[in-house]
Write a structure and sequence with these properties.
Radius of gyration: 32 Å
Distance between the termini: 84 Å
Number of strands: 0
Largest sheet: none
Helix content: over 70%
Length: about 210
């Protein structure tokens, strides 16, 4: 679903809705990110961070449903979801072209210190999810992919941690082995702490070995 298809099929509405989606997403992501910072469990926090990528898609679909309800367009649910997701994708493109600069200008207007940085909500992964839905992929499958991606990343991190731990343990074992005292040192230590005769201790050790 490209720009020309949107214009030929839906007129100027997708572009207007995309602009509104961009603005609403800029406001909506703020309280969500504040909420995420209050979540103490890392797994839950990371899951929510993955799902906020769908904010522009959700707003785009919602606005397109509203437009369809007001104008009585009579479009089916599938068409509305796909068109709304396309509006979300277009909103992400808008944001990266000029939206983030407007956002930065507004912050500076209110004398808030801010710098441009990557925004996952309006990033490439969010755009890929929006395009997938706009192309007809069921939303539940897109959500599963986002969740599974997060789980796989966590498993990879855990595996790397385990490997590093095993390497450290091996290194420590080797080091301990290299530093083991020899027989003469053992005899010396035993005699030092017990007062026994060195020849007697050496004789006992020799018999024990045999």
């Amino acid at each position: 679903m490209n720009v020309q298809y949107l214009f030929d099929t839906y007129g100027f509405w997708p572009f207007v809705i995309a602009l509104a989606t961009m603005v609403l997403t800029s406001f909506a992501k703020i309280p969500v990110k504040l909420l995420i910072n209050k979540i103490k469990r890392r797994t839950v926090r990371e899951l929510v961070e993955r799902l906020i990528l769908l904010i522009p898609v959700g707003i785009g679909i919602g606005l397109y449903y509203l437009k369809n309800f007001i104008l009585k367009s009579g479009e089916g649910d599938v068409a509305i979801v796909m068109a709304g997701a396309a509006c979300g994708a277009l909103a992400i493109v808008y944001y990266n072209l000029f939206g983030k600069y407007i956002e930065l200008w507004v912050l500076r207007l209110f004398k808030k210190n801010a710098t441009l940085k990557d925004d996952d909500t309006m990033g490439q992964e969010a755009l890929d999810a929006a395009i997938a839905i706009a192309s007809g992929k069921p939303i539940e499958n897109v959500v599963k992919d986002l969740i599974n991606h997060d789980t796989e990343s966590a498993n990879d991190t855990d595996a790397e941690s385990v490997d590093e731990t095993e390497d450290d343990e091996d290194y420590e074992d080797d080091e301990d082995y290299d530093n083991d005292p020899d027989e003469s040192e053992v005899i010396e230590l035993v005699c030092e702490y017990t007062g026994a005769d060195e020849e007697l201790v050496a004789t006992i050790l020799a018999k024990l070995k045999n």
